[in-house]
Amino acid sequence: MRETRSTCPYCGVGCGVIIESQGAQITGVRGDPEHPANFGRLCTKGSTLHLTASAAITQQTRLLQPLRRAARGQAAQPVGWDAALDEAAERFAAVIAQHGPDAVGFYLSGQLLTEDYYVFNKIAKGLIGTNNVDTNSRLCMSSAVAGYKATLGADAPPACYDDLKHASTIFIAGSNTAWAHPILFRRLEDARAANPAMKLIVADPRRTETAEVADLHLPLLPGTDVALFHGLLHLLMWEGLTDTAYIATHTTGFEALRDRVREFTPKHVAQVCGLDESAIVQAARWFGQNTPTLSLYCQGLNQSSSGTDKNAALINLHLATGQIGKPGAGPFSLTGQPNAMGGREVGGLANLLSAHRDLANPQHRAEVAALWGVPDVPAAPGKSAVEMFQAAADGEIKALWISCTNPAQSMPDQTTVRRALERCEFVVLQEAFATTATAAYADLLLPATTWGEKDGTVTNSERRISRVRPAVAAPGEARHDWAAAVDFARRLEAKLPRRAANGGSLFPYAGPESVWNEHRESTRGRDLDITGLSYARLDQGPQLWPCPQGQAEGRARLYEDGVFATPDGRARFAAMAYRPVAEPRDARYPVSLTTGRLRDHWHGMSRTGTLGRLFGHVAEPGVEIHPRELVRRGWEEGALVHVTSRRGSVMLPVRASDSVAPAQAFVAMHWGEEFVSGLSPSGVRLAGINTLMPSAYCPQSKQPELKHAAVKLLKAEMPWQLLAAAWLPEDQALLAQQRLRDLMPSFSYAHCVPFGREPHARGVVGVLFRAAAEEPAADELMAQIESLLGVAGPQALRYADPKRGQRRAMRLVAGDGGNARLDAFVLGGDIRAEAWIKALLTDELPAQAYGRALLRPGAEPPGAVVARGRQVCSCFNVTEPEILDALTRCSGTPEARLDQLQGLLKCGTNCGSCIPALRTLVRGSVQAA
Prior knowledge:
By secondary structure, the chain is α/β, with parallel strands linked by helices. The protein has 6 domains: 2-61, Phosphorylase Kinase, domain 1, CATH 3.30.200; 67-140 and 341-544, Rossmann fold (3-Layer(aba) Sandwich), CATH 3.40.50; 142-333, Dimethylsulfoxide Reductase, domain 2 (3-Layer(aba) Sandwich), CATH 3.40.228.10; 591-693, Barwin-like endoglucanases; 720-854, no CATH class; 871-928, Arc Repressor Mutant, subunit A, CATH 1.10.10.1100. The protein is 31% helix and 19% strand. The two termini are 51 Å apart. Residues 1-57 form the 4Fe-4S Mo/W bis-MGD-type domain. Keywords: 4Fe-4S, Iron, Iron-sulfur, Metal-binding, Molybdenum, Nitrate assimilation, Oxidoreductase. It holds the Pfam family Molybdop_Fe4S4.
């Protein structure tokens, strides 16, 4: 067995991992105890990385050779790399020659490595002469960039992870840190345990698991963050908690801000934000008195039409109280993706250049042109993500290169995005997975390496650069993103007017290290100077930036001397006006829909969605509303409802959740067309949750408002329903899922998800398919579903009543002790027996005694069937009923009960992602005692 140190490819915490491999196969993963981001810990996603890289999953999901589509709608056919890149260069060159360089665009990803990002940036801005290169980091971090630059002068988080243990107050705004950054939340829990006097404030419209464990939860109305922050500053000034000496010495613009926040009295802010005045006063006092204060924030602030204002308004609080540049203090933006920070460092956005240079600055453009050896870098601003796809939809952009991202799932206003992909003359998708929604629109698909195969660097939220190392060789014909891009660029150079001043190639790279060295040189003398870092030094351990040549180590905290990255060295207060959400509720759309993450999934789930065990916590998609809303509307749990915005509609089962306030709703961001679909009455395929979201964006950062939309909820009258599930061999289950997903548009509503635990002793994976329609499905369609789930043979038990639209099929197999076990079922029409039949299958209970009851519509089981219940702990498959039962045998303080619970069931003793939920259940048991 071989061990390789690398970095987790999920969130911006940037955890170190040790990959175990044998030959060409990754066999295990564990946290790196020497990595300063996680010290050996991993969350549910990171700890299952090796399972997503199994041979069975790779064979069923990976893009393993270049594919070319002769015409839209046709199946893509294999093609050699040379032919594929020749065609790409020819098509891009032809578009540039006929329509100019701005008729092409590159859309990248925060999951690319820094070296990948650098090469693409240079292709667009250096070789082609267009600034149309943007990234899905625009969807997650551009407001944080703009907020830092507007106030502190540079895009650089001033704090570090170590500040958690020094803080006396932690203020979390717009982040469900317990789910989105679990390992950082473990460090927060450690800090609170070591300092019981620490205060945790959480501002979030929902009562998330993060808010549940807070000392103070501020359930503000969606989009009212600026009003809250202005109100806190009003109180800080009123109660004399600002640092007047710091303001006078190190800042400018405070007078204008003071005048701006004068009207934001506690009473006014309480009305605007929907909060209690006393809670606002308490938050201000803890922020200003119980210092040092550290703020953590993420997409709840960033993904907004006023995202830059929200970021800057929070930074105002730190400047006004002097809570910056000292241990335990500062405004700390938590990066969403693993290398969104690295992309920002190399200028991988349409308005940036390498090393935090601004495209609008002539001197900065000249510096980059000189470094690259080209006559100039174009001055015209490039198109940001939303603008780029709008331009493609309008016919302005005619060739798109998309790398390592899935815009047909992740972008807002999916109707426009899909029109762009359909109308664009030439779409290249460079991707590791063949199963994403975007793959269906690509003319050329290029197989890319992914985690466990790539080589380069990433930068996490605290400015720490880590090495990414390959544990195994690339499967099939997959290539590294930077290498394929360089091969394309060299071909394109031959077809464009030569831009290199020395007559050589702009892309002389022999490996990722040579790309890194050029990027490193671009930072010399800049705020993020990394001239002191080489691959050899990074191989000794991750390093913080800035780290100039000759410096022993990187700087943990910025602005300790009170000197900021502005021309006069002073930070700037931002006196912004409060603006509500771009799309407020009204009589037609009376519900505020918010989006967020699931604990155990990542983005569009092209990787995490391959594991049944990661669906144990939230098994199926749904829209969450308050229980009182269910009662008021007369809906039952699980009823299908139309969720409709001004852009489109999706159908989802409704779930009761007291974490959501009345007149609000919540849907996880992950549910795209790959998992949830159907066909609207007008014949439009339902394309996932982002169909609903507006394309409105922040004018400063151009980050779209992906977090909020005004919607209406109407019950869907779908009298015919279908539920089918089966255990399938692990090397066939995901292919069956793909074929079932192709059938989803045959229904008004359908979703398809895996379930189970990998590795399973029997080598199987569960697949669940749920659908609904106004009329019973045709026999041919039902036969296809039964065949894919293995219940079409003569061994299956079956019942059918075509007149009533009833259809049932069961496959039983021999189980332990000779007792039959249900291995697959199809319920069509009447699915009232869902709970107990589904439990028989998923919990693998003996089924011999249920006989004909399995086939009778609406039948109750002849004996009790006790389902295991909702999973809480993914690592040890521990459910909520098991935890509640064990807590009846626990006593003492909440901490003592948690220790006893973990001793009994082991829950929370591995990755720890379930600990916030365990604490909530423990508190409930204490209150009930």
